[in-house]
Every structure is written in C-alpha cells, then in structure tokens.
Design brief:
about 550 residues; alpha/beta; Rossmann fold; GMP Synthetase, Chain A, domain 3; nine-stranded mixed beta sheet; five-stranded antiparallel beta sheet; 26 strands; about 30% helix
Length: about 550
C-alpha cells in the first residue's frame, strides 16, 4: 500500500511498520471512510465537533469538576504548546501517558495528538518491569504522569526518559506550566496514515505487542461501529469502567462521545455499585463496561438506578445469554455485545436493538467483513466451528514484531478466537484459541504470571491457565511445584499471590493456586497446558485448591 508523505520528523513509527506484504487487506467500502490525505484526528474530534455543536456544551464530567468542549480545547492546545515549546517534542516522537481516567489525562492525549506526536497511553496499575518493557519497545522520549503513579515509572529507570508530573499544583507541574500558554494552537497537519497512537496488548509469550494505529483509524472506529451500531446523539452522557489505555476504553469513553458531540463521565475508579450511583446521579445514558460489571451491578441491588440508561455496551469478554437476560429483566435495557481487539482498535462484530440475539455476538459491523475459516484458511460452512477472521478499515500493524505473520494471514486478521456463524449471519463465540486468559474484561497472558511466580524462591515450576468462573468469566489459576521442603498450605498460596501483585499489575495475580508434585509435560519437556485445564487437573496431587476471591 502506498503511504502519503509523512508529517513526522521522527520517523521511528513509519520505519517500524511491518513490510507491506505482511499488512492485512483494508476495505473502505463506506463513503464516510474516505478521509483527506491530511487529517489530525484530535482536531477532527474536537475542533470540528465544536464548529458543529458549539464550545459551551458539556464535554468531560468528573467528580472533581466538569469541562465544556471549549475548556478541553483550550487545555489540549496549551499542552500542545508546552510539549513543543518547552520540551522539544517534534512530530513522530512518542509520549507516554500514565494516569487514571480524568480530564487531565484527556487534555494530555489531545495535546500529544495535536502536536503530531504519538500517544502511548499506559495502564496506571502497571509495575516497573512492565513499564520498562513498554518503553523498550515504543521508545518514548517524554512521559506525562499523574503524580500519584510516578513511583513505578521512575523505578523502571528508562534511559533518557523525562517525566513530567501533573496534579501536584507545584510550579513545575504540567498543568501549571501549561496554564501559562495560549489557548489556541494550529494542529500539525499529519497524514491520515501517520501513526497517532501505540496500544499494547498481551501475547501468549507474555511479552506485550505494540499495535500502531493511524489518525484515520481513530476516526474509522467512530464512523463505523459507533455511528452505525451505537448511534449516539449529542444529548448522550457516556460512563464506564475501561481505562483509556485500553482501546475499548479509548473508543467508548472518549472517541465516540467526542465524535457525536456528547459528554462523558470520567471516573478514576468505581466499583459496580458506585458506578450505578454515578449513572443515576449524572443522568448517564450510555454505559460502557464488561459483562462482569453488568453482573455485579445487578447483584448489588442497584438495578433501579440503571433504568435511565439508553444504551449499554459490553466487550472485553464473552457476554453470556444469562447475563443479558438478567440485566434486561431488571432494567429493560438490551446490552449491545461486541468483539474487538487492540489489533483492530475496536469492535468489528456486534448488534443493537431488535437485531440483538442474546448469546450471539452479532453480525459484522458495517464497513467490516468477517468469516470463519478452517486451518487452511478456507471458509467453513455455517454452523461449523473455525477461526474468526476479519477485514475492514482498521487492521493489525505490529511495531517491529514477527508475530505480525501469525495475526495476518492471506489478508485476513486472525483474531485468536474460535467462532461459528449461523445461517442468519450471526457469529457465536466458542472459545479462545490461544493461551490468553480473559478475566473480568482484562486480557492476561498466562506465561507472564508464570514468569512472576518463578521469581519466588519457593517456586520450582509452575503453569498458569484460565479456569471458568461465574463472576469473572475466567480466573487466573496457577499450578505450582514447590521447592523441596516447602509445604503447600493456604498461607503459602497467599504469600505467592501477594508476591505476584508486587511484580506485575495486581489484577493479573492467580486467584486460585493448586500445588502439584510435578507438572504434566510431553516427552520433549513441553508443558501440557491442556491437561491443566481439565476438571480433574488437581487430582494429580492431594493438595487442596487455594482460592482468593
């Protein structure tokens, strides 16, 4: 594919794109997907929306205070000035963002994109080792970090990475420095196919993969799934749980409301019952979370506070029909299910309104093509299980990663999910076809937890798999062979769980641990994870299963 001349002075991202022969086949069938050669997605999402609806509309809502579209425009422009004038950021530089969902993080994201730089938004819960790996891959030159989350980033000791804090109120605080800058800014005229953001996803090896997305990709997810399936209006108020570091959260909590002229309630942290209270108090009409969140809100007894919702979006894990029915019976709201991926940026199969079939994910989103293929890459008959494959206006472009050739095959994006399609064109989820564990909407790589456990002196061997769980969909379950002389007790399990929480993001820790005398392996020494997934896997050992809820 021929790329437009780049506006990036730092050519790292374009130089790191996969070879053209390894790209997926792209489709721009919808007329609204034909973007100009030069377009800056932050300008399009904010400046253009203001021209259409006005600057005084509510934009970012939060417990700490609300911002209008004009407030965000000024704050984002001031950040862009600060980045380029004080910190020497040039188009194409990567800027790492670290903080919870709040207006300051959004202003930083807007400023980075307007300056022509590349946003690398990271989960606040990531630990030093994980951040070091991300920085090794993406090579950011500057980090904008909420002051409450600087310790792990500083501990990563990334060479030549300058860290600027925000939220301290001190003279060197980013917001204080930015407030001294003008509120207007001319965005860099980036190419539609310049990289705007790098999003990280877990892989079966535990080493994250960096997915690169263009300016046009950011707009495409709004102009396909959001515009054609969600259909938000300027009067809608969005709220939810996914962090902006997840592409699910970026779309649902920022890109979709901005594109529609709507507002979004940003919550740094909200348990399900707290989320229900916020929804009722702020007149939220669009909820964005995972099936776990919907189950928990119903279980908390707060269903009455959810009846003002107009739309509910679920992704991140399979939505069981029982969860859909329970939520509908309590609230009268039909949850819109969807499947997406970091590689595709957002959702590509879904259904809304009368098109919803509980238990089915849905049909291909307008603008996308989806198929179920066999191991040879050929379509299988309807009703036959196979590999899910997708094409559309977005697609996988890993940053200098050989795994590109696994995800993209014959022009198709192979998602790693097994599905079947019925005669009506609905896609039905069957299982994951790799070792990713999806727990409460989080993608967790089993080998990463294994690596963390093996750093403990009491662990001789271990294997990690996903185990079915009614609340979370799956939980992380570890099978551990202890060092000689160490007893496999409940206190030992708790110690290992606490240890993992200190090594990697706490949501990844094993909620169940079974101690075994040996792990099942092939004659060549390879771990047989499929045996660990069997219901009687713990029968290999008399030791009990130790769970943490």
């Amino acid at each position: 594919m021929q790329l437009s001349p780049s506006a990036h002075m730092d050519t790292f991202c374009r130089d790191s794109l996969p070879p053209p022969a390894q790209w997926p086949e792209f489709s721009f069938a919808l007329p609204e997907l034909h973007y100009p050669d030069r377009i800056n997605c932050a300008e399009e999402l904010l400046d253009t929306t203001i021209k259409r609806y006005g600057a005084d509309r509510p934009c970012l809502l939060s417990p700490a205070g609300d911002w209008t579209y004009g407030d965000l425009l000024a704050a984002g422009n001031q950040v862009a000035h600060l980045l380029t004038e004080d910190f020497g950021i040039v188009p194409g530089n990567r800027v790492l963002l670290r903080g919870p969902n709040n207006p300051c993080l959004v202003a930083c994201w807007i400023g980075v994109i307007k300056a022509g730089a590349v946003a690398v938004t990271t989960m606040p819960l990531l630990r030093a080792g994980e951040l070091a790996t991300i920085c090794e891959i993406a090579k950011p030159t500057l980090a904008l970090c909420d002051y409450r989350f600087t310790w792990d980033l500083a501990s990563a000791e990334v060479p030549d990475l300058a860290i600027v804090k925000y939220g301290t109120g001190q003279p060197d605080d980013l917001t204080v420095l930015a407030s001294q800058k003008p509120g207007d800014y001319t965005p860099v005229a980036t190419a539609a196919d310049d990289v705007a953001l790098i999003a990280f996803t877990s892989g079966t090896t535990g080493r994250p993969k960096a997915t690169m997305h263009f300016h046009r990709d950011v707009l495409a997810i709004a102009d396909t799934f959001s515009a054609r399936v969600l259909r938000p209006t300027p009067e809608d108020v969005f709220a939810g749980t996914p962090p902006l570091a997840f592409t699910y959260g970026l779309g649902g909590m920022l890109v979709f409301p901005l594109r529609a002229g709507a507002s979004t309630l940003l919550l740094e942290k909200a348990a399900p019952d707290e989320l229900a209270g916020h929804i009722a108090a702020r007149g939220v009409t669009v909820c964005v979370t995972a099936p776990t969140g919907y189950r928990a809100m119903i279980a908390s007894g707060r269903a009455a506070e959810l009846r003002g919702l107009r739309l509910c979006l679920s992704a991140g894990e399979h939505l069981p029909a029982s969860t859909w029915q329970a939520f509908y019976q309590k609230t009268g709201v039909r949850i819109i299910d969807g499947i997406g991926s970091s590689e595709m940026l957002h959702i590509f199969i879904s259904a809304a309104g009368d098109d919803i079939v509980p238990g089915a994910t849905g049909k291909a989103v307008p603008g996308y093509l989806a198929a179920v293929l066999d191991d040879e890459g050929k379509p299988v008959p309807d009703g036959t299980i196979g590999r899910l494959a997708v094409k559309g206006p977005t697609g996988c472009r890993y940053l200098a990663d050989d795994r590109q050739q696994v995800y993209v095959v014959d022009g198709w994006n192979i998602t790693g999910d097994t599905y079947l399609r019925d005669a009506q064109g609905y896609f039905w989820y069957q299982a994951r076809s790799d070792d990713i564990i999806i727990s409460a909407g989080y993608n967790i790589a089993g080998p990463e937890i294994e690596e963390a456990l093996l750093q403990h002196p009491d662990v001789a061997e271990c294997g990690v798999v996903g185990a079915p769980d009614e609340v979370r969909g799956q939980i992380v379950k570890a099978f551990v062979v202890l060092s000689k002389g160490v007893a496999g007790t409940a206190s030992t399990a708790a110690e290992l769980q606490d240890f993992v929480k200190q090594q990697i993001a706490p949501y990844k820790y094993p909620r169940a641990i079974t101690f075994l005398p040996a792990l099942p392996r092939t004659t060549t020494g390879k771990l047989q994870r499929f045996r660990l997934r069997e219901p009687d896997a713990g029968a290999i050992s008399p030791e009990p299963d130790h769970r943490a809820d």
